[in-house]
Amino acid sequence: MICVGRNSIDDCQGDSGSPLQVYRKDSGNKNCMYEVVGISAFGFGCGWTQDPQVFTSVSYFIKWIEDNVWP
Q: Which residues contact 53 (CB under 8 A, 6 or more apart)?
């Protein structure tokens, strides 16, 4: 799990399954500068900026993803 939070930023109902992306300015590939590191799992309401949002870690499931998406 990945917990994230920042003042005035929050996800809301219906956002489950959305990506958590990080910007990789040093990726060396100008066509792919963002990396998906998490998938929105749940939060504690909508607009509750004092509580973290919880994401499932993509790296934890990478083997399963590769085995099932690219068999």
A: 3, 4, 5, 10, 11, 40, 42, 43, 44
Per-residue confidence at 9, pLDDT binned at 50, 70, 90?
low
Question: Which residues have a Cβ under 8 Å from the Cβ of 24 and sit 6 or more positions away?
Answer: 33, 34, 35
Q: Can you tell me the mean pLDDT for 39-55?
A: 77
DSSP sequence for 4-64:
E-BTTB---TT-TT-EEEEE-TTSS-TT--EEEEEEEEE-SSSS-TTS-EEEEETGGGHHH
Question: Which domains are assigned to the chain?
Answer: 2-69 (2.40.10.10)
Are 53 and 5 a contacting pair, CB within 8 Å?
Answer: yes
